[in-house]
Amino acid sequence: MITPGDGMKLITLKVTVKELELLATLASDQLFRREFIDPRMPGYRPNSGDVNLGKALVVRMRLMAGQGAAAGTTPTKKTTG
Known about the structure:
Elements: H1 17-37, H2 48-72
């Protein structure tokens, strides 16, 4: 977990649960690219620290999205047309 003592500044960002889910998906896709596709490109320089930090962030975003969805929504009745 990142704390302010790690040399990073904490910021607050307000997003909806759907936006957070989208960000987590996009970040996960980018991490896949960095881990498995980019290493095959000429001149690639690996940065495992960023990949590991990104993976931890995706996990946190998905947990937050799940908690937000469970706490902030009520079941809706779906109708089929």
